[in-house]
Amino acid sequence: TSCFHGFIIRGIGNGKLENVDMMMRECKKEGEETLRQCSHALGHGFLAYEGYAHLLEALKLCEDMKGRVPGFFPDFCYNGVFMENIWGLHEGGPSSDRWVKASDIHYPCDDERIASVEVYLPGCWYNQSIYLNMVFKGDNLKVANECLKVEDSESKNMCFDAIFRGLNAPSGNNVAMKYKQCDSMPLDWRSKCITTQAGAAFQQGDNILPLKVCAYANDLELQRDCYGQMYSLSKYYTNRVGRNEFCMQIPAG
What we know:
The chain has helices spanning 2-13, 20-29, 32-50, 55-65, 74-87, 112-115, 121-135, 140-147, 153-171, 175-183, 190-203, 209-216, 220-233, 240-248.
């Protein structure tokens, strides 16, 4: 999926929109997860194509794809647009045209043109969390406190999701460290912090560490939630035998 991701960003960013539908259909042949990644990549490419000043136009291109390619994931496309806006690297460095304001750390998610469109907000806040991490120089508790201010529940969830996925890499294979990191989060979000990190490790191709993370929990409800997350994610196995072998390691009940 990474190859599809980079290929699509590069192709569209260089001004080639005529083959977009064909590329998405080819992605779909490779399975649902590949189409998700391609939809996300398309968002990156659309903003690079339109130019960083034209965020709304790029989001509209994502919206238009819904009726053109069956199964297309517009929410992943919106996420790609907002991620490209935060990093702004297609031109070789952060563009001065990005929708970013030092004076307003919630922008553009609090801009009425974004805030008034419900489907845009989750992708915006997921990536705003990444931006906030830069602003607060890696202080995740400060980022979490900003996420708590988000009114829309799905957007708040995505804001925290980005924090927790970001915690997965620094802790590596150290399960105890993952729990320690999550213990520093607001109380109501600690369980989600654990299950999200386990899921992130699985999605990165590790089918051993996530189960260790789940087993480490001394809270039965958290353990069930964590294993439930693993079972849900196991559908992305393209090999049925591999999926069955993984699921057999998940305790019953």
